[in-house]
TrEMBL record:
Keywords of the record: Cytoplasm, DNA-binding, Nucleus, RNA-binding
InterPro entries for this protein: DSRM_RDM1 (IPR057652), Rad52_Rad59_Rad22_sf (IPR042525), RDM1 (IPR040224), RDM1_RRM (IPR034200), RRM_dom (IPR000504)
Protein name: RDM1 protein
Recorded GO CC terms: cytoplasm; nucleolus
Keyword Magnesium: no
Length: 236
């Protein structure tokens, strides 16, 4: 898998690389399923690598898979690090920016669990974060809001409270950034607010889908902060 990743990642960011041994009835050998974020990158990799001896003695047969039925799986949200990697690759390091609009401690807002927490002698700290991602070259922006929570084993220890607070803040910020990016770096155009379009010529464009606009993207900063304060646990 490492050799496959090293070769094919030169054509563009990879979503996943999976190597498998052939079934017994198919004879000795192996096959791999390599998923790119961009269909254009996958096509270039196929044309360049098909029939070549990349890291083995025999020529490699590379095909573009067009049937997804046998490989369907649950689509999970990308973490913030992967989102930033894709944004840097397709938009450039100066092609986007992010900032935290608000990061609030919302611990204790769910008072209905207070007695249960006291009984279990275990508490948690919660932070709610709102992040804005801007694409200056395209004149667009998108927002994400998420909740981060970290357990406190010993509520009497001030150091543990500080450590848990930092974990919750980091988690909330990362999830909010990921939420904002999901509207941009997604392949499901009908379910996103923005979508990166990467044609064969490599010139990136951003498509806006107004029918999928969310409340958090249209509010002013003051309105967003107010919404976060009123509904801390309902927005993720």
């Amino acid at each position: 898998q490492h050799s496959l990743f090293s070769v094919f990642s030169t054509f563009g960011p990879l979503y996943s690389v999976r190597a498998h041994r052939n079934a017994a009835v198919a004879g000795p050998g192996s096959y791999a399923i390599i998923k790119f974020y961009s269909a254009g990158d996958a096509s270039r990799a196929q044309r360049a690598c098909n029939g070549q001896r990349l890291f083995q003695k025999s020529p490699l047969k590379v095909c573009v898979c067009t049937k997804q039925k046998g490989f369907q799986q649950q689509v999970l949200a990308l973490n913030s690090n992967k989102c930033q990697e894709l944004a840097n690759h397709y938009l450039g390091f100066n092609g986007w920016s992010s900032r935290i609009i608000t990061l609030q401690n919302v611990s204790g807002f769910d008072g209905e669990n207070e007695e249960l927490e006291k009984t279990l002698q275990k508490r948690s700290v919660k932070y709610l974060c709102a992040v804005e991602v801007t694409l200056p070259n395209h004149g667009l922006r998108t927002r994400g809001v998420a909740l981060g929570e970290a357990d406190i084993e010993n509520s009497e220890d001030p150091l543990e409270l500080v450590t848990a607070s930092r974990r919750a803040q980091k988690l909330a910020t990362g999830k909010a950034l990921s939420s904002a990016f999901q509207k941009i770096v997604t392949t499901h155009v009908s379910h996103c607010l923005f979508c990166l379009l990467v044609p064969e010529n490599g010139k990136v464009a951003v498509e806006y889908n107004s029918t999928q606009e969310e409340l958090t993207d249209s509010l002013t900063e003051e309105e967003l902060k107010g919404l976060v304060e009123v509904n801390p646990v309902d927005i993720e």
